[in-house]
Sequence to fold (427 residues):
Amino acid sequence: MKRKWIVVLGCSIAMFCFTGLAIGAEEACITCHKKISPGQVADWESSKHSEEDVTCSVCHGEEHTSAKDFNKVALPDEHVCAQCHEEQFDSFVKGKHNFGWTSLNAMPITHVEPDELMEGGRGCGGCHNMGIKSEAQKKEQRDKGYRYQNNSCDECHTRHSFSKKEAQDPRACQQCHMGYDHPQWEMWSSSKHGTRYFVKEKGKLPENAQAPTCQFCHLPNGTHTNKTAWGFLGVRLPLPEDKQWAADRVTILKALGVLNPETGEPTARLDAVKSVDMVRLTEEAWLTEREKMIKTCSKCHSEKYAREQLAYGDSMLQKADRLLAEGIEIVAGLYKDGVIKKPENYAFAYPDFLYFLRTGGGNLDQMSHIDQVLFQMYMKHRMRTYQGNFHVNPDYAYWYGWAMMTKDLGEIKELAMTMRATAKMEK
Ligand code: HEC
Ligand code: HEC
Ligand code: HEC
Ligand code: HEC
Ligand code: HEC
Ligand code: HEC
Ligand code: HEC
Ligand code: HEC
Fold:
């Protein structure tokens, strides 16, 4: 490994000269940075990199040498890591994490929210700064004055300790896979699987007791390629065979704006969704991921048991789609009859899930309350219904998921009635 990186860095003949240079510059980086940012140097010193002479300047270059010229420093993107970790890089590139930044920027809402919540690395951009950025994307960010967002590899093995053990811990996923619309951390940690993990961690279960982590199921055998069958949206192509389910799916796809609500034809948004691999586009693509997961479950359960368990998740998704489609149709009816006016940004007089909660401001209209209830039914409660099933969490699947969907639908019906009555009176 060590020999390889020296070759990569183009100093194969003058190895001695390279090492000499690196160490010379190194002393300066470390001496000075021990004073100005000692924590950072301590972290680096705790890393495998420091043992292997992967020094500051290997990643940051040697241009910056004083307190005044730090703007000349290189901020290493994933390609720098790839010089020595090609296998992990190649594997990462094929996974969904590599689409984090692009999929964020494909959302219409992203471009009307505060920059601090995007480029600033809080809010959406705090979790979605994953994925290799183009030079144009990097430049755009730099021009706005935002930095330190060009490396995905330090999201799970955090700089500057770059530890493998840290990335193997499920807590490495917690920062992003939690909360409103993807509470995988909460679901897993309070499931039987998570409970066993924590009891084992306390030393109260033997070392070889089984307790699957996020990594065991989603990044098995050191792979960096992550992808699931249903994905985040819980839709796929082709449409299901069941007639009612297929009709409900069409309704949902219209609310996602990938089908034209008037003609049922695909819109330009479908191409955007395809380009970031948001949905599996064929039965085979879906099955490939599903069968991988069955194999994983079967390391600890019988295959039959695993198939049954995942099939429960699928059928809850179908039932959740029924409720959601009913909600969408009620709100769509209000648009159709002019009870809700089409917001200017919308392409159609139809609910649009990709505008999220749309709180108004900028050039956005305030979203009507009933639309917000519908969005919550989709984004919070439908997600929990099926994600809770797949993560074997009874409470999320029922109380935080399904029960809340039925409550949302009740509220939507009630609100629609009142809105129609008010509209009639106003006439
Ligand atoms: C004489 C002191 C000194 C030396 C030597 C030095 N630095 Fe710095 N470096 C600084 C100061 C000061 C800053 C700005 C710190 C701040 O804003 O708090 C800085 C900032 C940085 C930054 C962040 C840049 C940014 O955009 O915010 C990096 C990365 C860095 N140094 C790496 C290095 C590396 C690698 C070396 C050796 C090749 C090195 N430094 C040598 C003083 C030094
Ligand atoms: C110049 C070569 C080089 C570069 C560049 C480099 N590494 Fe490493 N890295 C190594 C070597 C050598 C090791 C130790 C041998 C090993 O574990 O493969 C290592 C180990 C690691 C490990 C495993 C640590 C452990 O706890 O076992 C991680 C994770 C890692 N590097 C991540 C990164 C990331 C992320 C980047 C880019 C920001 C990067 N490396 C850049 C050479 C490099
Ligand atoms: C706490 C971290 C976090 C925040 C904040 C966040 N996301 Fe996400 N987002 C994720 C995670 C994790 C996923 C994948 C979830 C899953 O598959 O269950 C995701 C999925 C997505 C997807 C679907 C990607 C796909 O290919 O399936 C889009 C689009 C998206 N987020 C946009 C946004 C936007 C826009 C915002 C801000 C308004 C935002 N996200 C805020 C973590 C976050
Ligand atoms: C294996 C590669 C690697 C090594 C070695 C390395 N860094 Fe970094 N450093 C990074 C990455 C990656 C970032 C974040 C870049 C980004 O996301 O744009 C970073 C960011 C920084 C920053 C700016 C952000 C912050 O947290 O302040 C400073 C300063 C810094 N490094 C200093 C150092 C110093 C000093 C050393 C040596 C003791 C060092 N680095 C060694 C990879 C490395
Ligand atoms: C989603 C979290 C995550 C991200 C992002 C990530 N890694 Fe890892 N990485 C892991 C996990 C988990 C392991 C431990 C795998 C295992 O158990 O063998 C690991 C292990 C490694 C190792 C040690 C390999 C070994 O067997 O010693 C290296 C090197 C590494 N990653 C490099 C990278 C590079 C380079 C990137 C960016 C292209 C990256 N990682 C991005 C989670 C991640
Ligand atoms: C026992 C295996 C297992 C463990 C442990 C596990 N998952 Fe999952 N995960 C699944 C299954 C099964 C699915 C649904 C796959 C499908 O679509 O067929 C899934 C789906 C996902 C999805 C896509 C959206 C969703 O929730 O359905 C994300 C993101 C995810 N898991 C992240 C995590 C994170 C983060 C952890 C740890 C906090 C974790 N998972 C723990 C099995 C697991
Ligand atoms: C820095 C935030 C962040 C961290 C840390 C993180 N993820 Fe993710 N993850 C995301 C985002 C964002 C997405 C959605 C990417 C996209 O837009 O396609 C995602 C997507 C996924 C998916 C794909 C779901 C699908 O659509 O099929 C899985 C599985 C997953 N992550 C597992 C993990 C695991 C396991 C870990 C910890 C080892 C982890 N992630 C750590 C942000 C993160
Ligand atoms: C690394 C081993 C391991 C893997 C992989 C694994 N499980 Fe488990 N699972 C367990 C253990 C241990 C238990 C508790 C004892 C039991 O019920 O068999 C458990 C329990 C369960 C339970 C019962 C939960 C309860 O509350 O009683 C279900 C359902 C389940 N697993 C489903 C799955 C599914 C689905 C997968 C694959 C996505 C999976 N498991 C993968 C080890 C594993």
